[in-house]
UniProtKB/TrEMBL annotation:
PANTHER family reported for this sequence: THIAMIN PYROPHOSPHOKINASE (PTHR13622:SF11)
MF term (GO), any: 8-oxo-dGDP phosphatase activity
Cross-referenced CDD domains: NUDIX_Tnr3_like
Start and end residues of each Nudix hydrolase domain: 139-282
SUPFAM superfamilies hit by this protein: Nudix
InterPro entries, alphabetized: NUDIX_hydrolase-like_dom_sf (IPR015797), NUDIX_hydrolase_dom (IPR000086)
Keywords: Membrane, Transmembrane, Transmembrane helix
Protein name as annotated: NUDIX domain-containing protein
Record keyword Manganese present: no
Amino acid sequence: MSSQGQEPRSPQSYLPLINKVDNVPLSFDFNTLYRLFLPNDSRPHGFMVQSTVERLPWTLDFRIDHAERVVQLLNSTVKDDEDIGMTCTAAFQRVVDAAIASDSFPSLNKLHSEHFKIIGANHFVSIERFPAPLFGISSRGAHMTAYVKTSEGMKIWVPRRSAHLFTFPNLLDTTVAGGVKAEDSPFDCIIAEATEEASLPADFVKENARAVGAVTYCSLNKQKGTFFPTVLYVYDLELPESIEPQPGDDEVSGFKLMSIDQVKDAMLGEQFKPNCVLVMLDFFIRHNTITSENNDEYLEIVTRMRRHLPVPTSPERRFTVDEPGNTSYLGFIHCGRASFEPSFNKSLGGDYQTHEAYAVVSCAASYFLFISSTMTAFVLKHYRYTHLLR
């Protein structure tokens, strides 16, 4: 054991488990997929497998360009007197309804599902959860790991999924998890799922759950014709030994308090729902269970938890120096990316020179606002100090 009391190095690798979920390599050529565009937005919001594009029952709301590999939701769909988001949502729904009626896609299970919002869209656009991967649209999930500090060390409450579930029956899961509905925030999802699935007191969860980041990954399944860029918002909840999760609905068959070693063994034995492995690995990294001292793959694991998604994750913004309230960290991030990754936007079908110019302007605007706010704070502080001396 090391001087920090950490575990010895383990020869077992978590990377095959990560690869099962995040199976799109960074070198992947996205030009082999069709890009999905929304009206008046030059950014692709989805990447579609060719076989799916050929099989979906498209309506006249969409233009399909096979030569350019583009699926465009047309401007003509949007009327001046209508809400853009609602109109786009309705256009997607017409295709989804026809796809479900035709029973051409087993992943839809001939069922409708709750709506997920397209997280990077400039307007509130949503699509049903089950067909979202057919359009290559990013989805949001929220996962919370509940743990207990016992005399024997940290332990984690692990549920087992019910046998009747359509996806991943009988596998182990994160303590509380669910897809984030279109109108909800990730924390709304956590509170609702904690109450419904684990019978945890809502007030206790609101006061004690901690947002600790997000996990991102991309899944491609050519057999099913799906591309699935995913964001999982991650939360931690420390529970006292007096509070025990209990099944609140029929989606969970039971909960078990497992030691860290038991959880690791279950992960390596592929007993967990695949994407929950990423959430658990993130938990282990943040709680110093997996470190660079005890795992040679530490950096690979860490970087794979936060991969860049090929679709937008926030609405499009244009920053100007004289516009108040537009301080953003993204200016600095884009500036660095434009400087060191000249092929970045080209790989996603964008115009790099346009993005580079925007990145430089964003960087300059952010820097100017940072300096201005710093000087303002200094002047106010100096004024207050000299005023007190009078």
